[in-house]
Design goal:
heterodimer, A: alpha/beta, Glutaconate Coenzyme A-transferase, 6-stranded mixed β-sheet, 3-stranded antiparallel β-sheet, 8 helices, 13 strands, B: alpha/beta, 2 domains, 8-stranded mixed β-sheet, 11 helices
């Protein structure tokens, strides 16, 4: 099997975000995140639930690209109303995109510039406020730069650790930021003030490069390991089953 | 009992400054024939409450919106509604942007005649900053938890589109998701339902299970038969989204001449029937 691509390393790092999650709803937005979430379900987290993206849970894992193959086995009905119930009940782990993210994990995909009259309208709040205050949240950023990893986001759609802490223990008890995966490395918030820490760099990426491309001060441990490589089985699942057309390699460029 | 009416009769009831809720979700099962009739009218200064799609885009582009209450505005296959985006960037209306779950909560509060419903969604985010009228409430029980008090979204009018309806005002969705159409109706003073086809009440059972008759006639004041009424949004199983048309619509946001042509061909039609003819000729 040929060497793993950067996108494949990212997909495995995203899959790892779901390790230990058990029987909850896995929602992963964007091509690479979708492949990563499905990979977790096909390997070490088989009890994860996922949807067909419309209104039904599927109990078999459909591919992200290529021929649809067999019709997936449909499980429970999950219209948007039920998804909101799941969100507010907390049995979900979402991987969202971020147009901007700061050192405490405040995320913005609503708009760039002042909200009254933005320079660029993006997706809007969508479900980010409710997701982040109710259940596990991770982020995937395929284009790590200091324009995305910023000192201060223009608008907070997804709630970060400092703002959650300011709400007090009671109101923030379901807030649970897990990881940020970018095309350069993996990050978490396991620091004394719950600010962002570099967990690993992807093969071929230096710590200096991560620091240079990050617009705020990151916690850098003395020893930064490399992100783990995909196993042969994972590479097979990514290349032959989940993404035979290699779409993730268009989203993530090394 | 016969509640049949027409798009023009419905829109003749509407007034400047009204708060209008529009059912569907993104570019899915939107009551577009009613939206098109609003576009033909002189109505202005509207407050629109919506899980936004081209309904929001077209009404914003036409300058009919004073305030938009929404969590997103999307064309689904095109993630961002380009006409909404342009109107936002021009600052041409007040953007009451909420978490999408909060929107449901506001409709449910209005449906239940409550002043508000508590929720955790929105806490810690910029939603309260964007909506300075939003208040919090403290639990009166021992936990004392502070929550957002999502105010009731009381609507003057609700507009929804169903697959089937009877003349009494019962309505049936045959696609995968009822969205929040029932809540829009329950939150509104006047409720209008367009549908692909009006059928005898006894025929609902031939079309789908009893669970698909989500709209009951107490929730509806008028029924409009509008085949193709959701075009160009999807209305399965009757039809999917007209992706080619949607692409053409989206492209007009970048090109004034293309918009003028689009408007001339599709939005200056005197009636919905003419619009449907123009679409057929494509």
């Amino acid at each position: 099997m040929s060497e793993p691509t950067r996108a494949e390393v990212c997909a495995v790092a995203i899959a790892e975000c779901f390790r230990g999650d058990g029987e909850i709803l896995m929602s992963a937005f964007g091509t690479t995140a979708a492949v990563g979430g499905r990979l977790a379900k096909l390997t070490f987290e088989p009890d994860l639930m996922m949807t067909d993206g419309i209104a039904t849970a599927v109990e078999t894992v459909p591919p992200v690209s290529g021929k649809a193959g067999e019709e997936p086995v449909k499980g429970a009905w999950l219209p948007f109303r039920t998804i909101f119930d799941v969100v507010w009940a907390g049995t979900r782990h979402v991987v969202m995109m971020a147009s901007q993210i700061d050192r405490f994990g405040n995320q913005n995909f609503a708009c760039i510039g002042p909200h009254e009259k933005p320079k660029a309208q993006l997706l809007g709040m969508r479900g980010a406020p409710g997701n982040t205050i109710n259940h596990k949240t991770s982020y995937f950023v395929p284009n790590h730069s200091n324009k995305v990893f910023v000192e201060k986001v223009d608008v907070v759609s997804g709630v970060g650790n400092d703002r959650a802490a300011a709400l007090g223990e009671r109101s923030s008890r379901f807030h649970d930021l897990r990881r940020v995966v970018s095309n350069l490395g993996v990050f978490d918030f396991e620091t004394s003030d719950h600010s962002m820490r570099l967990v690993s760099v992807h093969p071929g990426v230096s710590v200096d490069e991560v620091v240079e491309q990050t617009g705020f001060e990151l916690t850098i441990p003395n020893h930064v390991p490399e992100t783990r490589l995909p196993t042969d089985e994972e590479l097979h699942l990514i290349r032959d089953v989940l993404d035979p057309e290699g779409w993730i390699n268009n989203e993530v460029v090394a | 009992m016969d509640k049949q009416t027409t798009e023009s009769e419905v829109v003749a009831e509407l007034r400047d400054g009204m708060t209008i809720g529009i059912g569907g979700w993104g570019s899915r099962r939107k009551p577009m024939s009613l939206v098109r009739e609003i576009l033909r009218s002189g109505l202005k200064d509207l407050t629109i409450v919506t899980y936004g799609g081209p309904d929001a885009g077209l009404l914003c582009k036409a300058g009919k919106v004073k305030k938009l209450v929404y969590g997103f505005v999307s064309l689904d296959s095109i993630p961002l509604e380009p006409h909404f985006r342009k109107a936002r960037q021009a600052g041409s209306f007040r953007a009451a942007e909420l978490d999408e779950g909060m929107l449901q909560w506001g409709l449910l509060a209005a449906a239940h005649r409550l002043p508000f419903l508590p929720t955790r969604a929105g806490l810690g985010s910029d939603v309260p900053g964007i909506n300075p009228d939003l208040r919090t409430v403290r639990s009166p029980y021992d936990d004392g938890e502070e929550l957002i008090a999502m105010p009731a979204l009381e609507l003057d009018v609700a507009l929804i589109h169903m697959n089937r309806a009877d003349t009494r005002g019962n309505g049936q969705f045959l696609g995968p998701d009822p969205y929040f159409d029932d809540l829009f109706c329950l939150a509104a003073k006047r409720r209008f339902m367009s549908c692909e086809k009006i059928i005898p009440t006894e025929d609902f059972a031939k079309e789908g299970s009893i669970h698909t008759v989500k709209i009951n006639r107490m929730m509806i004041d008028g029924v409009i038969e509008a085949p193709g009424g959701a075009h160009f949004t999807e209305c399965p199983p009757d039809y999917g989204r007209d992706e080619a048309f949607q692409k053409e619509y989206a492209a007009t946001a970048r090109d004034t001449a293309a918009w003028d042509e689009f408007e001339r061909k599709y939005l200056t039609c005197a009636t919905e029937a003419e619009y449907q003819e123009a679409v057929k000729k494509r």
